[in-house]
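Re: duplicated header lines in exported structure tokens

Our pipeline writes sequence and tokens for each protein into one text file. With two proteins the header for the second block appears twice in some exports. Here is an export where it did not happen, for reference. First protein block:
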Amino acid sequence: MSHAFAKDSRACAACISWGAERALSDDHTLVYVTRYSVEGECRTASSQDYRKVTKAYHTCPAWAPLPMLKKHGGRPDRPPTFATPMAPPASPPQPAAKPAAPASSPSAVAEAEPPPCRADLLDVDKTPPQVRVLYAHWLRVKRKRPLPLAHEIDPAQMRESVARLCLMEPVAGGADFVYRACGRALQRRLGRRVVTHSVTALHPAQAAARWLADLRACLESGEPRCLLVRDDPMLPGTRFVELLLPLADVEGGPATRVLAYRHVPGG
């Protein structure tokens, strides 16, 4: 109902605006509303314009505990705050609970392990625009030589991607990788400064093993890898796109670093 009061009722604006189940008595008194389990009678309205009745929107003490609607300045998505504690609804007596049987083993109450982090190859054409822009820039530089050099990657050509980029360098013969540079969006997800720290020191073991395997595959093949990552602890329960681009230190040399883009929220 778009207006503050019902045309056939003298109920206050709060009672009419809440679109819950309600019953109207013969004398046009609103007597029952199920929203938030608040019940009562409303007979207080004296005007068709609620602005003349109250500045607090609620005109009826029976419905005062109800939060205001969002369009009137309230936040109905939050539970209502009651001035006085409300008595819980009466419930029939329950039979005495039987003593619980002892657990068979500690593993019975152990929390379920999170799903393993995994990644699947993904077509670059199916990725967000930032990924495609970065990939196109890498291809343009690659036209000049077998592999782009690290200093040839121009951040000005991909401003929207910088916050999610990191430059990874292998250590210990490729057994681990170290962050040589990292954007702020990734550092926020990891909760600390990461430059000069290794993957195994910053990431959970299973997620680190997955990422190290993909970094090594990109470095050894000298080919870019576009992946759809699932269940990474950095973004639990969701997925994100990851683009790995090999870079060289000298012209004509092998890949020695990996430029990684991880499409996580933030910027």
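Second protein block, exported in the same file:
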Amino acid sequence: MDQEWARIESDRVAEEVAEAREDLGAPAPPHPSARLWGGFAAALLAGVVFAAVVNIALAARRPPPAPSPEPVGFRPPSPNELGPGVGAEGADGEEPEETASPTPRPSP
């Protein structure tokens, strides 16, 4: 019998507590303090500054890249790959007859 009275009493207390909470309204969730946000921002800024300093120091230690006269894998095309009439000049630099300009040359 005592257990039943204890249960009834605990139910009554729980109802009163629930009614009191409803009367007061839901409490606002706690907001993090400005000090906490300031600490977070300071840590983030310190990380960014550290990363920048390390990156600059590593870049300064790297040797500059050697200049390359030609791009990697570049091969000048052969006259056969260029097509007819391109690069067909003779040894003296004159154009052969088939690719000569249409201006007539004086005959001797």
